[in-house]
Design goal:
Strand content: 15-25%
Shape: elongated
Distance between the termini: 48 Å
Bound molecules: histidyl-adenosine monophosphate
Number of helices: 15
Structural class: alpha+beta
Subcellular location: Cytoplasm
Number of strands: 16
Largest sheet: 8 strands, mixed
Subunit structure: Homodimer.
Pfam families: HGTP_anticodon, tRNA-synt_His
Catalytic activity: tRNA(His) + L-histidine + ATP = L-histidyl-tRNA(His) + AMP + diphosphate + H(+)
EC number: 6.1.1.21
Radius of gyration: 28 Å
Helix content: 25-40%
């Protein structure tokens, strides 16, 4: 009996993988342009990290983690997101002591969440994320958002909507929390059990509930914007001013609540407005998490970041009909006829490859016509033909597949000839 791939995961095969490489390259290139450096953290971490970092009352920690005990009976978890691990690493490696603050990091790594799979929602997915740690300047919030928008735009996406909110500082949140509890408590029995549990712990998350989103109390719920203290208001205004300065459009949505506990001040999501994108329209999400480094044992370090999954980015490109130009063609295919020529083609191919020329040959003992067919399928720019006659003369016949021109080239000069034509 054959074994199938686990639910919510997928193979990325040749043909598709080139698109991934292109996106990854773009993400790396834009990160470098904004002066973010790559960080790689382990695929699994101590479970405590996510319980404390992401928050005990979140869906991620409550329902979605791949948690297991290793043979030493330690509880480990496949990372469901990147911010807590990067923060752990920042503290553990004392990056707060580095001269170059803020520390600006990016990652492209697989994440794991036990969610109900559907289009755009998988159990293993790849996040491109960035974290800027050690600055409370509102301009860096705008920089982080601009980085995400730059990646999307340069890949060709147009139908994007940036949704912005502020969650305020601790004082503003406390006052908002009290107002939310007072608002929902009298009729909390009309809400789902998740919301009932959230009421006292984290009432903000009630606003994020999918089941109860049409309840009349949702629309009339007190807005964070009414509970912001002066400092939080100013901070939010300054973020908006920086976005305006970069000509980045946004809409304010005071109900935007992110699903992770560590956020304060700026919260944002970038949505796809492309028709046919599907039910899940969020392409990326992020925000400020000023308390997390401290919660994980480091000094007070204001930080902000975001993450986007490459899967949703690919879906958005497809929905907008953007095709990525991937490079698939071969520079040269060597066609050899006869035993001696076949033998010689081994060293010719090796020479081509050592000279940086993308090349291949037949390994199935095919006839000439079939070898040409293979060259065609591989989109070879040149086909180099070697038969007995060519061997005796020390030359190889090179056909330019675009123009159809054919020319004799001294075998030793094949690499130079092809490089000139490239
Ligand atoms: P998040 O909103 O949980 O935030 O996830 C960020 C992005 O990851 C989503 O917008 C989506 O693109 C992608 N994503 C999440 N779950 C799935 C899934 N099951 N399948 C496919 N894609 C998914 C975070 O993870 C935060 N760590 C972001 C952040 C970084 N905040 C500050 N720094």
């Amino acid at each position: 009996m054959s074994i199938n791939i686990p639910r919510g995961t997928k193979d990325i095969l040749p043909g598709e993988v080139e698109k991934w490489q292109l996106i990854e390259q773009k993400a790396k290139e834009v990160s470098a342009r904004f002066n973010y450096k790559e960080i790689r953290t382990p695929i699994f971490e101590h479970t405590d990290l996510f319980q404390r970092g992401v928050g005990d009352s979140t869906d991620i920690v409550q329902k979605e983690m791949y948690t297991f005990n290793d043979r030493g009976d330690r509880s480990l978890t496949l990372r469901p997101e990147g911010t807590a691990p990067v923060t752990r690493s920042y503290v553990e490696n004392k990056m707060f002591g580095l001269p170059g603050q803020p520390v600006k990091l990016f990652y492209i790594q697989p994440m794991f969440r036990y969610e109900r799979p559907q289009a755009g929602r998988y159990r293993q997915f790849v996040q491109f994320g960035i974290e800027a740690m050690g600055s409370a300047d509102p301009a860096i919030d705008a920089e982080v958002i601009s980085l995400a928008m730059t990646v999307y735009r340069e890949l060709g996406l147009k139908k994007l909507r940036l949704v912005l909110n502020t969650l305020g500082d601790a004082q503003s949140r406390k006052s908002h929390k009290e107002a939310l509890i007072a608002h929902f408590e009298p009729r909390i029995d009309e809400f789902c059990s998740d919301c009932q549990n959230r009421l006292l712990k984290n009432p903000l998350r009630i606003l994020d509930c999918k089941k109860d989103r049409d309840h009349e109390l949702m629309k009339s719920a007190p807005s964070i914007l009414e509970h912001l203290n002066e400092e939080s208001k100013t901070y939010f205004e300054d973020v908006k001013t920086s976005l305006d300065a970069m000509n980045i459009d946004y809409v304010i949505d005071p109900t935007l609540v992110r699903g992770l506990d560590y956020y304060n001040h700026t919260a944002f999501e970038i949505m796809s407005e492309a028709e046919g994108f599907g039910a899940i329209t969020t392409l990326s999400g992020g925000g400020r998490y000023n308390g997390l480094v401290e919660d994980l044992g480091g000094p007070a370090t204001p930080s902000i970041g975001f993450a986007m999954s490459l899967e949703r980015l690919l879906l958005a490109l497809e929905a907008e009909g953007v095709t990525l130009e991937t490079e698939e063609e071969l520079d040269c295919y060597v066609v050899a006829l006869g035993d001696e020529a076949k033998q010689k083609s081994v060293s010719i191919l090796s020479q081509l490859r050592q000279n940086g020329i993308k090349s291949d040959k037949d390994y199935l003992d095919k006839k000439m016509k079939a070898q040409f067919k293979a060259a065609d399928r591989l989109k070879a720019k040149y086909v180099a033909i070697l038969g007995e006659e060519e061997l005796t003369k020390g030359i190889i016949n090179v056909k330019n597949m675009d123009s159809g021109d054919q020319q004799e080239v001294v075998i030793e000069e094949l690499s130079t000839f092809i490089k000139q034509g490239k």
